[in-house]
């Protein structure tokens, strides 16, 4: 497993939970204290802290301390890297669809060209 695959695992794991996605939406819109975030959910402060920690480990948000508060901000670059990963997967899928379209458009009396790659 490569570092980039480990990073992808961390990103998609972090985004696999609806509470974490909601927290990410909020911190991408603006900096929030973790205690303010915790007030928005029907769960304990510790549970929200754990969600924030998962997002932070994945690199989707950063935290900074101001006095006793931890302020969280979303990382747009990390979100773009998720979009890039999804674009890469879509390109594989589109390539397969293009090859199917090509095969369907071929004259059935012509020999089939050899395929390459996945």
What does the model show?
- With 118 residues, the chain is mainly α.
- It has a domain at 1-77: Orthogonal Bundle (Arc Repressor Mutant, subunit A), CATH 1.10.10.
- Helix content is 62%, strand content 12%.
- It has five helices and three strands, in the order ααβααββα.
- It has a three-stranded antiparallel β-sheet.
- It is elongated and about 75 Å long.
- The protein starts with a helix and ends in a 13-residue tail after the last helix.
- The model has no long low-confidence stretch (mean pLDDT 92).
- InterPro entries: ArsR-like_HTH (IPR011991), HTH_ArsR_DNA-bd_dom (IPR001845), WH-like_DNA-bd_sf (IPR036388), WH_DNA-bd_sf (IPR036390).
- Residues 1-94 form the HTH arsR-type domain.
- It comes from Lapillicoccus jejuensis.
CATH class of the domain at 1-77: Mainly Alpha
Helicity range: 55-70%
Q: What is the arithmetic mean of pLDDT? A: 92
Taking pLDDT < 50 over at least 5 consecutive residues as the criterion, the unreliable ranges are none
The percent range for strand residues is: 5-15%
Principal-axis shape:
elongated
Distance between the termini: 20 Å
Identify the CATH homologous superfamily of the domain at 1-77: Winged helix-like DNA-binding domain superfamily/Winged helix DNA-binding domain
CATH architecture of the domain at 1-77: Orthogonal Bundle
- Computed CA radius of gyration, to the nearest angstrom: 21 Å
Number of continuous helical runs: 5
* Largest sheet descriptor: 3 strands, antiparallel
Structural class by helix and strand composition: mainly alpha
- Spatial strand order of the main sheet: 1-3-2
């Amino acid at each position: 497993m490569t570092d980039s695959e480990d990073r992808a695992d961390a990103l998609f794991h972090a985004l696999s939970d609806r509470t974490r996605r909601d927290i990410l939406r909020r911190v991408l819109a603006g900096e929030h204290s973790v205690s303010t975030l915790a007030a928005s959910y029907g769960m304990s402060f510790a549970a929200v802290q754990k969600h924030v920690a998962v997002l932070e480990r994945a690199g989707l948000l950063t935290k900074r301390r101001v006095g006793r508060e931890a302020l969280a901000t979303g990382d747009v670059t990390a979100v773009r890297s998720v979009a890039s990963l999804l674009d890469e997967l879509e390109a594989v899928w589109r390539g397969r669809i293009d090859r199917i379209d090509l095969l369907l458009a071929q004259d059935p009396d012509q020999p089939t060209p050899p395929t390459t790659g996945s």
